[in-house]
Write a structure and sequence with these properties.
The protein has eleven helices and 14 strands. It has 349 residues and is of the alpha+beta class. Helix 1 packs across helix 4, helix 6 runs antiparallel to helix 7 and helix 7 packs across helix 10.
């Protein structure tokens, strides 16, 4: 399996060098992008990554990047062109964030530094690198800070627990488990909206970027911590699939985007691979209205955006008292395990 390690580069003395490398990468990208487009327009031929090899031969002698980086850039363009189904991709210019890919065979990592093309770039090694480095890259964020990433091949897997749970994703409690455990964090967008508004009115670009970066990092850190805890303690997880794009067009847009449900599901799925556990995505339709005890949809069950304020309710059929989110999580688990269908019919198995 492949793990990615990310570190902040101590870029105070090497920022200009990294920017110079990024400009060289942009030059290669724009050349291959234009060449590919002309081949499609004039000859109807879609160039493959092997077609670019002779065209880019000797490029590393004229630019401050090695041949493996040149090859990685052309390979990435071919991959993205196929992914987005476009004959021509975006032009990389001075406003593009820096990106310098490399191969694990062309670098050396020792004593908290990476040696690339004869230059030494130090980074904050907050955790040890495990496995064999296959590929990697230098990347720049919107604040101009540089990071180095290593994709490493790791053999050993991490043990997991014995929990079998369903997960309901929400706004008040971001994650609710079918066993009653909840994971909640504050709404970061609302917490910093006053500061962000002040910075935007004052047109302080650096301040604006710093606030957005703080929100992003806190949200990402919380998501990583919760998904790691769930994968370490569980062997089977069922997650309800929410169509956040539709909800993002309602009055709940800020809260929906801040909850970052898509990021949570993605992290949970890829961490499950290393832990050797199963994560299943099912439709959450009817999960809120269905009684997890009798498996029917009773009259008076909360439904729709207008009933989001109803946090607990009683089933008129069997009289069971439900916490709204825990009941939904239990139904989601039943949907995934085949104990109940999303139409509210309870299985006798």
């Amino acid at each position: 399996m492949i793990l990615t390690y990310s570190y902040r580069v101590k870029d105070q003395g090497v920022r200009k060098k990294l920017c110079r490398l990024a400009r060289a990468v942009n030059l290669v990208w724009n050349y291959t992008n234009e060449t590919s487009y002309n081949a499609i327009r004039n000859h109807g031929k879609w160039l493959t990554k092997y077609d670019f090899r002779p065209l880019l031969k000797g490029t590393s002698k004229e630019l401050p990047i090695n041949s493996q980086t040149v090859q990685a850039v052309s390979d990435e363009l071919v991959t993205r062109r196929k992914q987005f189904k476009k004959a021509k991709l975006k032009w990389r210019g001075k406003d593009s964030l820096g990106w310098v890919p490399f191969n694990g065979q062309t670098i050396q990592v020792r004593e908290g530094a990476v040696f690339y093309n004869g230059e030494r770039y130090r980074f904050w090694e907050h955790r040890k690198i495990q496995g064999k480095i296959k590929t990697g890259s230098f990347t720049q964020d919107s604040r101009g800070r540089w990071y180095v990433h290593f994709q490493c091949e790791v053999d050993e897997a991490v043990e997991h627990g014995n929990r079998e749970i369903g997960i309901d994703l929400g706004l008040k409690d971001q994650v609710t488990c079918s066993d009653g455990q909840k994971y909640t964090r504050e709404n970061l967008t609302k917490k910093y909206e006053v500061q962000l508004a002040q910075a935007q009115r004052a047109k302080k670009v650096k301040w604006i970027k710093a606030i957005h970066s703080r929100i992003k990092n806190k949200r990402k850190d919380w998501t990583h911590q919760v998904t790691s805890k769930l994968c370490k303690s569980s062997k089977y997880i069922v997650v309800g699939q929410i169509h956040s794009k539709k909800l993002a067009q309602t009055r709940l847009a800020k809260s929906v985007l801040d909850a970052s449900w898509g990021s949570f599901t993605t992290l949970l799925q890829y961490k499950a691979i290393r832990h050797g556990m199963v994560v299943q995505i099912v439709s959450e339709k009817w999960s809120t209205q269905t009684c997890s005890c009798c498996g029917v949809i009773p009259e008076g069950a909360p439904k729709g955006i207008s009933a989001l304020g109803v946090r607990s309710w009683r089933c008129s059929g069997c009289g069971a008292q439900h916490d709204r989110d825990i009941n939904a999580a239990q139904n989601i688990f039943n949907f995934g395990a085949g104990r109940c269908t999303p139409t509210g019919n309870l299985s006798l198995q």
